[in-house]
Each structure stands twice: as C-alpha cells, then as structure tokens.
Amino acid sequence: MHNPVKHKTAVLIFARSPHEEMANKSIFNGEQLFDALTHHVIETVEKTQLPYFHFSEKKQIGNTFGERFINAIKAVFEKGYEQVITIGNDTPQLTVSHILITENQLSSNKSVLGPSSDGGFYLMGLHKSQFDPTSFCEMAWQTSCVYEQLLKYITHENKDVFQLPRLSDIDTQVDLRSLINYTRAFSEKLLVAIRGALEWCENKYIIFLQALYQLALGVQQNKGSPLFSPS
Q: 3-class SS at 193?
C-alpha cells in the first residue's frame, strides 16, 4: 500500500478475500480465480503510481453492502485525500488507462462513472465535496438501477459526469465465459485461473447445481453490481 502526500487522489479497492467470494458467488472451483483477480487489479493500480487502499471484509465496517462501501469511502477521505476512485476486483477488463483517465477528469472538476453491463458500475470517481453519507445510504445498492441513481445524484450536485466505456464484471460462470474474447490483456496467472474455473462448467451436472444455487441463495456481488436484474 502506498500513501504519498503529493497526490490528491487515492484508489479504493473494495474487494473481499477469495474465501468470502467463494461463499457468496455462484462460481464453482473459483478460489484460485478470485485470488488471481485481486492480484490483477492490485498490479493494475500499482502501475498508475497512485496511492491505494484495499478494503477486504477484514477492514469493512457495517451490516449492509451500502454501509460497508460508504464507510470505506469515508475512511479514505479522512486520510486527507480530496478525490477517490472506487473499484472492485471483478472487472478484469479495467486498465491502467481507465484509472488515469479518471484521475485526469477528476482534476478537471468532473466526476466519473464506469457502467457495468448489468446496470451496476465498476468504477466511480468522486470528489470529497460530493460525498454525503446520508444520501449514499439511500441508494439502491446491488440493484440494476444503482448506476442511474448515482448518475442522477452526481448530476444534481452540479458536477459534469464523464462516463467510461461499459464493461462486464464477473458474478457468474456465464460472465466468466464472456471474457474469452479479452484474454490478450490478462496475465498468465489470471488466464490459468479463468480456464480452471471454466473447466467446471463443461459438466452439465455442475451447471444444473449452479442454477439451483442461484435460485436458492441469490448472487451477491461486489460494488454496485445488482443482486437482481429486470426480466
């Protein structure tokens, strides 16, 4: 973790440990995958040379996703930073360029949102002056409308919003398959982990169990990803 004083912007990596991800996401045999994803996002952030803070479940405080996420943002601002870029570990298409563009837009007094294909978001660039914990608590976290709510809130605060390209995050085995077209940008460790997790999907029985698992327990995702999507 880095904490140079020269930066006004810090990156918040809001991501659970591989063990917790395995307990809450419907991806079988995925512990190696989640470990690789976390390493991948940390390596990506380190290349930006921005200070960053990784909040796993050990550092998260609160009973709900919204409370934990808001408290993590608050903790970063309390360290003296004026701007924060929040990301998770479940969007491996996120690049160094996306983060540096976000920092540049923040420096130009704009806010930044990166929409996910499921109606959530994979990145948020926020100024301290915009951060109102009470208003953020009222957001419909982990629903398919949270991106639109954030966009409306930030626009209402008289800030221009720069929107990054829409990307896909990983919440299910189906999401994992969609990454095959983007593997050139991934490390060998991440590629091996993706292939290993996908091998389990080849068995129809495993796919059947996955469907039952999702119906029985639902799917819990990281920052902003919806628990439920509209039919």
A: helix
Tokens of 85: 């870029």
Would you say 169 and 91 are in contact if contact means Cβ atoms under 8 Å apart?
Answer: yes
CATH code where residue 120 lies: 3.90.550.10
* Position 230 in a domain: no
pTM across the whole model: 0.82
Closest of 219, 225, 222 to residue 54, by C-alpha: 222
The answer to whether residue 231 is domain-embedded is: no
Span 88-111, pLDDT tens digits: 998 999 999 999 999 999 999 999
* 69: in domain: yes
In single-letter form, the type of residue at position 79 comes to K
Tens digits of per-residue pLDDT, 135-170?
A: 999 999 988 899 999 999 988 876 789 999 999 888
CA dist list (Å): 108 to 2, 83, 93, 105, 210: 24, 12, 25, 5, 45
How many helices (H) and strands (E) the chain has is answered by 9, 6
Tally of domains within the chain: 1
Burial class (CB in 10 A: 0-12, 13-18, 19+), 193: buried
Domain with 76, as residue range(s), is: 1-225
Residue 208 parent element (H or E): helix 204-217
